[in-house]
Amino acid sequence: MRDVPFRRVALVVHPTRDIRTALATIERWTEEQGLEVVQLPAVGGRREVAAAGEVSAADLVVALGGDGTVLAALRAAAGTATPVLGVACGSLGAMSAVTAGELDAALDRFRADDWTARSLPVLAIASDDGDDWAVNDFVVVRRGSGQIAADVSLDGELYVRLAGDGLIVATPLGSSAYTMAAGGPVVAADTAAFLCTPLAMHGGNAPPLVMPGDSTLTVDVEPGYAGFDVEIDGHRRPTAASLSYHFTLRPDELHLVTFGHVDRGLGGLRRRGLISDSPRILARDRRATGEEPASRPPPCARQ
């Protein structure tokens, strides 16, 4: 139960998607409950749907959009440890708990404390530019046509000296995003680990590295003549001055609202088509259900 009253619902919204149904539900529900609706400032947020405001840990942040909107909401809510409810508006978001049509019941369940917190770690980033953190991933990538070089070490032990397009450092949640597209492994939810995936390494050999959650990864960058860029959770940061970065995993920093069993995140990847079965297995299933006739071998050629 909450130690302080639940007073307001704070919104973080997608800049372009149709959120009218979800927004109308929130406005009607909060009016019935006597709650205030405010909007939180968020990275990339330009769409105003409510007055700006603040929240406490006892309140609720609702993200209307897709996974990118949920990421922005988690960052906006981090300072107060306010739970975030992701509402999928127009996509099957892996981080969304409900669709717009299910929102009314979800708000009732949250008010009744009938929900489960899914705790997420963050990737802590220390450099000469200052401290920062990521929910999904940190990317250092070449700028222009040149390559960058980097020394990658784990707890002081050299892993690889690489040249190429750059590298990604990701949390378990982020393992199904950019790093998966670059050939990195999927790390199941709640695994105490993080990973580093080289991008288009020019020669040599360095598979993606999965690291214990209590370790420290160090990346020392040699930028090349064209320089490099840094992205955190898909957002480019100002031109980096630092050439040395240190990464650790901080557990249980953020909280997503979920309902029912908290799984390992694999079902969501399958529903979105990011993980799919072998065609041979799918064909076997269709034959077993009569959807596809069993194939017959061609008749032997007559002599």
Considering the protein shown, what is the CATH homologous superfamily of the largest domain? Probable inorganic polyphosphate/atp-NAD kinase, domain 2
Sheet with most strands: 6 strands, antiparallel
CATH topology of the largest domain: Tumour Suppressor Smad4
How helical, in percent, are the residues? Answer: 10-25%
How many runs of DSSP E, i.e. beta strands?
Answer: 17
- Classification by helices and strands: alpha+beta
> Mean pLDDT score, rounded?
90
Oligomer: single chain
Gyration radius (Cα, Å) is: 23 Å
Keywords:
alpha+beta, Rossmann fold, Tumour Suppressor Smad4, six-stranded antiparallel beta sheet, 6 helices
Describe the structure.
With 303 residues, the chain is α+β, with helices and mostly antiparallel strands. The chain has 2 domains: 8-114, Rossmann fold; 122-251, Tumour Suppressor Smad4 (Sandwich). Helices cover 18% and strands 35% of the residues. The chain has 6 helices and 17 strands. It has helices at 20-33, 67-77, 103-111, 178-181, 266-271, 279-288; strands spanning 8-13, 36-39, 60-65, 84-88, 98-99, 116-127, 130-134, 137-142, 148-154, 157-164, 166-170, 193-199, 209-212, 217-222, 228-232, 235-236, 244-258. A 6-stranded antiparallel sheet has the order 7-6-17-14-9-10, covered by helices on one side. Strands 13-12-11-8-15-16 form a 6-stranded antiparallel sheet, with no helix packed on it. Helix 2 (67-77) links the parallel strand 3 and strand 4 (84-88). The mean pLDDT is 90.
